[in-house]
Structure formats: structure tokens, C-alpha cells
């Protein structure tokens, strides 16, 4: 989860409170038709050793000038910087970017991925289901077009997502809507965001749609919980 498209800066409030006051109040995630879930705010400050294998592999594969999309508290960027990479962490959350700078990422920038321009990167990193910023299947062409403007000719996109089919194993599927299109809201203490769309993709659909937009799509890793890491490159 990522603060993109969320009002009231729920993630920023939680990140700032934890970093400055050690407040461990969790972020609550609300989704239509599912039980509420909790994100422990300390998880957003995890070290490389505490990251899931999907994220570790993405960091290992990152090379050159790297764009960390939806950087949140900056955990991935800090590890990339430690490894000597030139990294640009971006997030739309003003508070998250402020904490990134305090943690040692002065280059962190408050901006929306979709309006970033005049820069190109060897690696574009979209972790914690970063492709969710596309919001819907219909919006994926806009997402892919923006990738094309930011990616160097031999650059790579590393992204993870999850196939949510396991949530519907005993249900009759609604063919009018892709099951990975979810509407969420988030809350922290007494503040709640507006509902916002978020997208999860299964690998085969990602491969099919990205190839239609001129990319190659390679499965790098899959875990035991329907999650995967993929690498995209321009043809």
C-alpha cells in the first residue's frame, strides 16, 4: 500500500508519528467485501534483512540511476543508496518525503509519478504492489506510456504484485470486473481517507498487457502467497 491518491496523508501522518515519537499506532486498511487489515507502521521502516525475499531480490537487481516510486519512509532507497546507487525517491506525501530527508535522503522529491518528466532512469522500482498506482486495467496504457518517457533505452522496471484469485476461490466470479481491481480507504487514529482504486495483477495478465505496449516481461520470482516479482524492458 502506498499513499498515492489518498487524501489526508494517512501514511505520512503515521510515518511522521512513528519516526518522531515512536508512536506504533497501526494504519487500518478498509476494503469492500473484505475484513479490515492492519499495517504496522514500524514495517514501513524495515531494514534489508527484514524485507521479504521479493523486495530483497528487486534491490539486488537494481542498477544505475534508480527511481523509487512511492518511497514512503525511504527504506528501499536507503538500502539502494548504501549500495552506491544514484537513487531518486519520490512520493506524493509531503510528510513521508520530509522523513526520508531526515533519514538521509536529501534528494527525495514530493511529486506524482505521472507528472515526473525531464529525467530518465536505468531502473524504475515499484515495490509493495507499486503497479497499483495505475488504479485500473483501463488506466494501464497511461502507466506504461509514462514508464516509456522515464526509462533509458536499455533500462528495466522491477515491480511486484499479487494474484488475488485466492481470495475468490469459493466464489462465483463477476466477469464484468477484473478481480484485482480493489477499492480501499485507509485510516489512522481519527482520520480516514476517501475511497480510492488500487490494482493488483496476476503475472499472465501483466505479461500480456505489457507486451502489447512494447515491453518484454520476465518472471523473476514468485512466493508461496501468490506474490511475484517481474522485470519489464522495452523492446
Record keyword descriptors for this entry:
globular, 25% helix, alpha/beta, seven-stranded mixed β-sheet, 6 helices, 12 strands, disordered N terminus, 235 residues, single chain
Describe the 3D structure.
By secondary structure, the chain is α/β, with parallel strands linked by helices. The protein contains six helices and twelve strands. The strands form two sheets. The chain has a seven-stranded mixed beta sheet with strand order 5-4-3-6-7-12-11, with helices on both faces. Strands 1, 2, 8, 9 and 10 form a five-stranded antiparallel beta sheet that branches. The longest helix is centred in the first third of the chain and has 12 residues, at 10-21. It is globular and about 45 Å long. The two termini are 30 Å apart. Residues 1-6 have low confidence and may be disordered.
Summarize, please.
With 235 residues, the protein is α/β, with parallel strands linked by helices. It has helices at 10-21, 53-61, 75-82, 94-102, 140-150, 203-212; strands at 27-31, 37-39, 66-69, 87-91, 109-110, 121-126, 151-162, 181-188, 191-192, 196-199, 215-222, 227-234.
Please summarize the sheet with the most strands.
7 strands, mixed
User: What pattern of helices and strands is seen along the backbone?
Assistant: HEEHEHEHEEHEEEEHEE
Summed over residues and divided by their number, the pLDDT gives a mean of 93
Strand order, largest beta sheet: 5-4-3-6-7-12-11
- The amount of helix comes to 25-40%
Q: Total helix count?
A: 6
What integer value in Å does the Rg equal? 17 Å
Amino acid at each position: 500500500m502506498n499513499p498515492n491518491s489518498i487524501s489526508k496523508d494517512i501514511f505520512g501522518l503515521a510515518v511522521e508519528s512513528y519516526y518522531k515519537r515512536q508512536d506504533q499506532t497501526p494504519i487500518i486498511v478498509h476494503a469492500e467485501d473484505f475484513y479490515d487489515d492492519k499495517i504496522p507502521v514500524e514495517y514501513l521502516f524495515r531494514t534489508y534483512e527484514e524485507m521479504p525475499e521479493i523486495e530483497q531480490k528487486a534491490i539486488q537487481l537494481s542498477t544505475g540511476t534508480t527511481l523509487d516510486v512511492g518511497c514512503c519512509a525511504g527504506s528501499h532507497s536507503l538500502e539502494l543508496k548504501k549500495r552506491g546507487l544514484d537513487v531518486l525517491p519520490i512520493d506524493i506525501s509531503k510528510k513521508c518525503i520530509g522523513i526520508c530527508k531526515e533519514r538521509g535522503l536529501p534528494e527525495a522529491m514530493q511529486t506524482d509519478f505521472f507528472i515526473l518528466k525531464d529525467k530518465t532512469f536505468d531502473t524504475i522500482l515499484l515495490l509493495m504492489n507499486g503497479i497499483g498506482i495505475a488504479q485500473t486495467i483501463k488506466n494501464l496504457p497511461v502507466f506504461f506510456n509514462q514508464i516509456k518517457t522515464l526509462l533509458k533505452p536499455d533500462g528495466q522496471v522491477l515491480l511486484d504484485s499479487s494474484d488475488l484469485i485466492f481470495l475468490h476461490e469459493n466464489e462465483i466470479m463477476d466477469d464484468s470486473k477484473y478481480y484485482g481491481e480493489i477499492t480501499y480507504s485507509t485510516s489512522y487514529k481519527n482520520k480516514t481517507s476517501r475511497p480510492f482504486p488500487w490494482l493488483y495483477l496476476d503475472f499472465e495478465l501483466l505479461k500480456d498487457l505489457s507486451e502489447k505496449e512494447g515491453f518484454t516481461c520476465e518472471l523473476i520470482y514468485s512466493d508461496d502467497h501468490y506474490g511475484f516479482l517481474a522485470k519489464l524492458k522495452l523492446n
